[in-house]
User: What shape does this take?
Amino acid sequence: MDEFIQWHEILQEILDENLSLLSGKKISRCAREQARYFQIDYYCEAQEAVQDELSAKNITRPFEHFKTYNVIEYKSIAQVLNEVRFREYVGRTLLVENPVEGGSHKGQVTLTILTTRYPEQLIAMPQYAFAQINDWKYRSRWIEGLEIYILVQKGMRGKQEGEALALLQVLEGDKSRQAESWQTLLRQELHNLETVKKIIHKIGKEVFMNLVATIKNEGIQEGMKRGKLEGKLEGKLEGKLEGKLEGIETALEIKFGADGLRFMEAIRKINNLERLNEVQGFLKKAKDMAEFENMLGNCKV
Assistant: This one.
């Protein structure tokens, strides 16, 4: 039986840690559904735009439309966004726009619905005045003063638009598409690649391990190919060293998870095949990371 995946919890964790990256704005307050007096998937308050290390890359930020008060609702692979649910979400958001304890927030509120599938019937209904912004983003002008957006995860597949979009692309619920979608992400030079890896591992551990092994093996084969073309002893030795290092990196990730990769900085300083063979032996013998770290510390570079 397939393991049940807590899609909403995974998304909420992503939002907890990455809302500034996803929106490009400073987040002053955020809360999951249980922290609100009415049930919504996620709520946050945003302020001015922030300048981060990725600002110069001009990456796509899925929540760049955020205003002061923002509601986020999520429909996973097993759920469908229909008209009834859409109107329910809008009704909840209007409580944010017109709170009981204060004045109106009209014009300062957004509703964002992230859904796996295209809600084709809903989008086609003229009364909701949907307009397509890009392959995966739609805006409704149904309610004056309330900005409503639908983000379709399916439409994000294959896009290479940076670290922020990758955090939503990783929520691939279609098992027949997971390997392809995740491979595209893992091949990108993302600053938050380790975060993406952890999410993939949580959703599909077996698929993730197979992908890591495939990518590492391709790297080894490419290194060997380069060595043969160069036809030099130094090139061959470099290919062997790189192949050995890639094998150790894969073994570390399989045995200790993503945290095990922190040892690679020290291991890459070893340029001797005999010493690297010893490191592989340590990996087989060590019962935990502490024991492996102690063995590695006694290994001469």
In short: DSSP finds eleven helices and seven strands in the chain. The longest helix spans residues 205-230.
